[in-house]
Amino acid sequence: MNTRPSKLVKGQTGEWEVVIGLEVHAQVLSKSKLFSGASTEFGAEPNSQVSFVDAGMPGMLPVINEKCVEQAVRTGLGLKAKINLFSIFDRKNYFYPDLPQGYQISQYKNPIVGEGEVTIDLKDGESRLVGIERLHLEQDAGKSLHDQNPDSSYVDLNRSGIALMEIVTRPDMRSSEEAAAFLRKLRAIVRYLGTCDGNMDEGSMRADVNVSVRKPGGPLGTRCEIKNVNSMRFIAQAVEYEARRQIDIIEGGGTIRQETRLFDSRLNETRSMRSKEEAHDYRYFPDPDLLPLELDANWVAEIEKSLPELPDAKKARFMGLGLSAYDASVLVAERDLADYYEDLAKGVDAKAAANWLNNEILGRLNRDGLSISQAPVSAAANNAIVAMISDKTISGKIAKDLLDIVWSDGGDPRAIVEARGLRQVTDTGAIDAAIEAVIAANPDKVEDVKAKPKLAAWFVGQVMKQTGGKANPAAVNAALKLRLNLPDEG
Amino acid sequence: MSNSVPLTLAEARDALKARKISSKELTSALVQGIAQSRGLNAFVTETPERALAMAAASDARLAKGEGGALEGLPLAIKDLFCTKGVKTTAGSRILGNFVPPYESTVTQNLWNAGAVMLGKTNLDEFAMGSSNETSAAGPVFNPWRAKNSNANLVPGGSSGGSAAAVAGDLCLAATGTDTGGSIRQPAAVTGIVGIKPTYGRCSRFGIVAFASSLDQAGPMTKTVRDAAILLGSMASVDPKDSTSMDVPVPDYEKQMEGGIKGLRVGIPKEYRIDGVPADIGGLWDKGAAWLKAQGAQIVEVSLPHTKYALPTYYIVAPAECSSNLARYDGVRFGHRTSGSVHDITELYEKSRAEGFGAEVQRRILIGTYVLSAGYYDAYYARAQKLRTLIKRDFDKAFESCDVLLTPTTPGPAFGVGEKTSDPVSMYLNDVFTVTVNLAGLPGLSVPAGLTENGLPLGLQLIGKAFDEGTVLRAGLAIEQAAQFQHKPANWWRAA
Amino acid sequence: MSVDKDTVRRIARLARLAVPEARLEPLAGELNGIFQWVEMLNEVNVDGVPAMTSVVAQKLKWRKDEVTDGGVADALMQNAPEREDTFFVVPKVVE
Ligand SMILES: [Mg+2]
Ligand SMILES: [Zn+2]
């Protein structure tokens, strides 16, 4: 699967390969924080969702939230990763105003989840494996606000102590497209699992991007870590900028310094974070306020049993139904979309249902700026429309008109077909009558069609018009061929 | 009632139950006694109004025949326990004005049992010290003085204020905390009883942390029975402390009874160390003889890694402290420099340098160093392995005995200022106590005799994890044999 | 291993303690005294010995996922050296 050639970047001295690894921070979906009973809800009044534990008050102690442990295990299982039945919480020590304890409780040498893998789906329908190195649980920090006052920063600890899963990949991606594809896939997985809402705007999912460059097939270069890249678009921009910067340095005779950099989305560039550099001695050690986290293998097995069908399995199943790899991966990208599709496709041809969803529904949603969950026409109603096309109750053309009606006015598609007499005409008598009427009105065209058989399409159109679009086009074709003595290949 | 209240906790409890005295009488006598004893500097904060109000509420409950196990009994609280609405300083300038909006679990347990709070006692800054000389509130003086001497002696540390308050009859009993000996060592040198229970027996929630894997709260009392009574109320299973043990709290006062016939008492040979005065060795032998006379069997045991305990401790404890004390940064509470600063880093550096005393800063530096890149394995990781070996020593020893008998300290109380210039010689005061913290075991110090100079000495009993009952039973046997009835001369009371 | 003046300066910086230049040398001396004493731990063979992770033989306590805390912004702010409404205030942090 990984044999597809990398996308290479041109430099002065030839081509370069970009090597990318990601560290994704995904906020665990839970009601309360990792080590305290304060709420995790987004957007509350400053410091209103903070317990004395979260504020690092003297003598306060952490007690772990069982749900957060379960969510990490679920996610690990979803990443086909090894679940470590013994893991340890460590303290990562550094000073920062939004880090109230003076340390972050994280997992260092013994994370809760070990190695796993994710298959990413690329534009051309190809796939690539990205290795997962680990997933660990840790606390989020608070937030410093710098714009309220010219001389001061304001600290809000509402985020402080919220559970995060830090998911670290192997340096297995070779372009910003692949990095974005990984993030999309990871987001789909955690959303399927219900372990993270994947909302990048609210910061529920943030990525640090490790970028290095090398000559194709050569040894890995020195990497730089770009912090907190918070949208798919920024990831692409940051990778492109950083790769170019590194290539220019190396080709100019310089060397890359391993460092942490910040992506400035306004200037569209990365720059060194010196302040972060000097404090790089985190003095990790096991948190003596917590005992090792030990999991019961049976409990893990129970969680595994409760996992939903994940995107890859769903994609394979959809392909088994006759969908192309591309169609299948588009449909499984969002759980809502896949669910919608499955309802739509019930009892009808899978491919026809997929085409209908891709061409008609998604097109209209896009036009109206709506998501699949906001679709004004239910999957069941669409299912009825597709079923009516396939049993020839209505024509494809009528089906589209019908969808427009239901889209804007609502209603039951079958009832509308009956009420408005939209049933397709397959009765040859009615079609023959319409053909005779067209021939009678256009004798000159009858002559022409003998010389230019392509004109037959014009006749079909006229007959369809005559029948108000309700005639079955195939039946019209056949009858016309017979009546006008046209050769078979029209 | 005189302002000196020599009653034990048990005596006062029985007198209150029998309505022979009221909590108000008891409390006001002690409140006055405390006010007259400021020369000892045992209290950082006195809370007389609160004490009297609590006493009145207790009297009302007692009058109705109600009340908890400690109903109406006035106690002193080490100023390391957070007390809601009452300043809690940890003996540090950095917490000089800190008023916690919450209560520690241990003190809450005491109030739930009906106890009365007299005030907060002095301590070494952040409980780091063995002489109570590192407190921002100044040193505490030991109520005891050597024969024919007016020189002030230290009360031991870090629970020096609590020890002095109990020894000086300024309270019926007090709470302490013990990270390397901070209950037992001051108890020994002030002639009182102190027990550090098994790690996980008393909740650490709301106790200002020094070294989380070693810190443990415990009672400081006049008698072994009092220790059993007070521990019964301090201990609990606390869902707010992940390291609090899910074991129900037994009736220690009951477990303490029954004698020691057939009890196997281990004498660890490695505790006979050079340079310890003859008084100590003699008292130790006497203690073994007392227990034997009451039917115990004395066995020699070996704790081969004993000599590594103190250096192990001086890596583990500073490492944890360097991290635990990172939260004192002048942002959310505590001292913030009033000097001008250019940035947040300078704010941290100045606030912390101004707020922490020399010993605390020294330990933060040691801890930062041993955890830093390149040194972690050589120091911290090695020390945690030594800890495993030290604990295994005890596991092995307890295969052939039920309880261990050792001296509590390598000497009696020393002079104020005598050891402040040499940290290592100061650290050596904990040589017999620190092993117990490293292994998480219960340890009890019982006053057992006086030096030639008339200063108290203690003997230590060490038990298996969660076997405080046996430790108290053996302690009671020592107490009964020693008949330690000595009291310090009352030199400090202002008229 | 011996601690010099620069090492003291570096760890003081890591620990966010302002140490006056004149104190660096004496502190290095004090720390060396302690570290020399601690050197005795090297006598012990610790190969294959697991580092202690907890002295109590107990499983980590787990809490139910319920909102039981928070909503105490005023109590939280009551000891703050500097505040603005319910924000803690610090000198400008630049990134
Ligand atoms: Mg990272
Ligand atoms: Zn992280």
Regions with little confidence, pLDDT below 50 for 5+ residues of chain C: none
* CATH class (first level) name of the domain at 9-257 and 470-482 in chain B: Alpha Beta
| Total DSSP E strands of chain C | 3
Mean pLDDT of chain C: 94
Instruction: Using the CA coordinates, give the radius of gyration of chain C.
Output: 23 Å
**Class per helix and strand makeup of chain C:** alpha+beta
Going across the biggest sheet of chain B, name each strand in turn: 1-3-2-4-6-5-10-11-9-7-8
The major beta sheet of chain B can be summarized as:
11 strands, mixed
Mean pLDDT across every amino acid position of chain B? 96
Supply the CATH superfamily name of the domain at 9-257 and 470-482 in chain B: Amidase signature (AS) domain
What is the element layout, followed by pairings?
The complex is a heterotrimer of chains A (490), B (495) and C (95).
Chain A: E1 8-11, E2 14-27, E3 64-65, H1 66-78, E4 86-87, E5 90-93, E6 103-106, E7 116-121, E8 127-139, E9 143-145, E10 152-156, E11 163-169, H2 176-193, E12 205-214, E13 224-229, H3 232-251, E14 259-264, E15 269-272, H4 274-278, E16 285-286, E17 293-294, H5 297-305, H6 311-320, H7 325-332, H8 335-344, H9 350-368, H10 379-390, H11 396-409, H12 413-420, H13 428-441, H14 443-451, H15 456-466, H16 473-484
Parallel strand pairs in A: 13-14
Antiparallel strand pairs in A: 1-2, 2-11, 2-12, 4-17, 5-6, 5-16, 7-8, 8-11, 9-10, 12-13, 14-15
Helix pairs in contact in A: 2-3, 6-7, 8-10, 10-11, 13-15, 13-16, 15-16
Chain B: H1 9-17, H2 23-36, E1 43-46, H3 48-63, E2 74-78, H4 105-112, E3 116-121, H5 160-167, E4 173-178, H6 184-190, E5 193-196, E6 216-221, H7 224-234, H8 252-255, E7 264-268, H9 278-293, E8 297-301, H10 309-324, H11 344-355, H12 358-371, H13 377-397, E9 403-407, H14 423-427, H15 434-439, E10 443-450, E11 456-463, H16 468-482
Parallel strand pairs in B: 2-3, 2-4, 7-8, 7-9
Antiparallel strand pairs in B: 1-3, 4-6, 5-6, 5-10, 9-11, 10-11
Helix pairs in contact in B: 2-3, 7-16, 10-12, 10-13
Chain C: H1 5-14, H2 21-38, E1 62-63, H3 73-77, E2 83-84, E3 87-91
Antiparallel strand pairs in C: 2-3
The complex binds magnesium ion (MG) and zinc ion.
